[in-house]
Write a structure and sequence with these properties.
By secondary structure, the protein is α/β, with parallel strands linked by helices. The protein has eight helices and 18 strands. Strands 10-11-9-12-13-14 form a six-stranded mixed beta sheet, with helices on both faces. Strands 3-1-8-5-6 form a five-stranded mixed beta sheet, with no helix packed on it. Strand 15 and strand 16 form a beta hairpin. It is elongated.
């Protein structure tokens, strides 16, 4: 069974407690504290497994936890670190916070491994708390608590071209003709339930990947039928290919079908309507006389002024298919091959905003710049795409919630002054 959605609970490991212990040996009556540190809790990590193409592993088991760190022990023995929990997912999996729906990570493009929840740090043993005035501390630091989060996993098919159209218009037949995919083909009114992928191989080119997105129905954007499950697979594609029954073998109006599908795309995600589109007017092999010329002319008059080219084809006989495929390849080359990756919108609060890792805010008189740096800042930059609007909004919120803006004001920053954060520089405006 194909599974492209799962809701699971993930948990990092708790840090081990520091140990309270004192050295006690013969002839060493007051050896001092020797309590060891606790081990770090295990991280919760997602990793891409190229051999996977579904989320079946997460349909029956719903809770995943990393190992806890072991407590420290006497003689300055450090507790063992907890074992990491590594969850394998197929490429194209988007991880969202279940409560807010915001993207935590997109396992696509170059992102093949990401730590989602870091294990709690181990507590320090009492050996660290000895001072000249307190040579026998009887306390140690507890390990930091684990972090737990409910997340949603969504698999969004990665393909260059998405085949869209109503059920029974010939999408599966077209896919089986142009690729090595073997979808089930029959004359039925219900729809394929799984996205089928195939590789189109063209002489003189490197080809492309095409996906038969399960057939849409009116109301899909509102969740009618399996609408949302179908529509999410279109978000990854670079180009949309509408397959319509040009011959109206079942009484459907091809022009109205395209309008309905475009409305469903717009209602689900307005960005989908900005993707390049091509229309394949299928089933031209059943036309009689001048019927084909009339129907194709009407389709071209309706859509080609908007830059949507119309190709008359027959998926059964192969008529017009080769010309269509080479045109698709030409358009893909113009669009480019940059993968469609969703920006992170959510970072577990304890990881960044409430991190206890240090940072500094200083003024460099030589460079005449305000400098912000430290482990917490490095971690934030590693999580944040400052080139995206949402990433920059998070960056500004981070500066405010961590008191960095207040610290800059205390140092006397004024509008137009330069703020340097490692290799990034910004002009400050209140």
């Amino acid at each position: 069974m194909f599974a492209d959605y799962a809701k699971i609970t993930i948990k990092s490991g708790r840090g081990g407690d520091g140990c309270v212990s004192f050295r006690r040996e013969l002839y060493v009556p007051a050896g001092g504290p020797d309590g060891g540190d606790g081990g770090k809790g295990g991280d919760l990590i997602f990793e891409v497994d190229e051999s996977l193409n579904t989320l079946n592993d997460y349909k029956h088991r719903r809770k995943f936890s990393a190992g806890n760190g072991e407590p420290g022990s006497k003689r300055r023995c450090h507790g063992a670190d907890g074992e990491d929990c590594i969850l394998a997912v197929p490429k194209g999996t988007v991880i969202r916070d279940a409560a807010s729906g915001k993207v935590i990570a997109d396992m696509s493009g170059d992102n093949n491994r990401q730590v989602i929840l870091r294990g709690g740090r181990g507590g320090k043993g009492n050996q660290h708390y000895a001072t000249p005035t307190m040579q026998a501390p009887k306390y140690a630091q507890p390990g930091k608590d684990a972090k737990e989060l409910e997340v949603i996993l969504e698999l969004k098919t990665i393909a260059d071209v998405g085949l869209i159209g109503f059920p029974n218009v010939g999408k599966s037949t077209f896919l089986s003709r142009v690729t090595n995919a073997k979808p089930k083909i029959a004359n039925y009114h219900f729809t394929t339930l799984n996205p089928n992928l195939g590789v189109v191989e063209l002489d003189g080119t490197d080809g492309f990947v095409i996906a038969d997105i399960p057939g849409l129905i009116e109301g899909a954007s509102e969740g009618v039928g399996l609408g949302h499950q179908f529509l999410k697979h279109i978000e990854r594609t670079r180009l949309l290919l509408h397959i319509v029954d040009a011959a109206s073998t079942e009484g459907r109006d091809p022009i109205n079908d395209i309008r309905i599908i475009n409305k469903e795309l717009s209602d689900y995600n307005i960005d989908l309507t900005n993707k390049p589109q091509i229309i394949a007017a299928n089933k031209t092999d059943v036309f009689y006389g001048t019927e084909e010329e009339t129907v194709i002319s009407l389709l071209k008059e309706e859509f080609e002024p908007d830059g949507i080219k119309v190709f008359p084809i027959s998926a059964v006989s192969g008529k017009g298919v080769k010309e269509l495929l080479y045109y698709i390849k030409q358009q893909l080359d113009v669009i480019g091959k940059d993968p469609i990756v969703f920006d992170a919108e959510f970072i577990p609060e304890d990881e960044i905003v409430q991190s206890d890792e240090p940072f500094t805010v200083t003024y460099d008189e030589e460079e005449e710049k305000y400098v912000i740096e430290g482990p917490r800042i490095e971690k934030m930059l590693g999580y944040t795409n400052l080139e995206s609007e949402k990433g920059f909004e998070f960056f500004q919120r981070f500066l405010k919630e961590n008191g960095i803006l207040d610290m800059l004001c205390e140092l006397g920053i004024e509008d137009g002054d330069t703020v340097k954060i490692y290799n990034l520089e910004f002009d400050y405006y209140k």
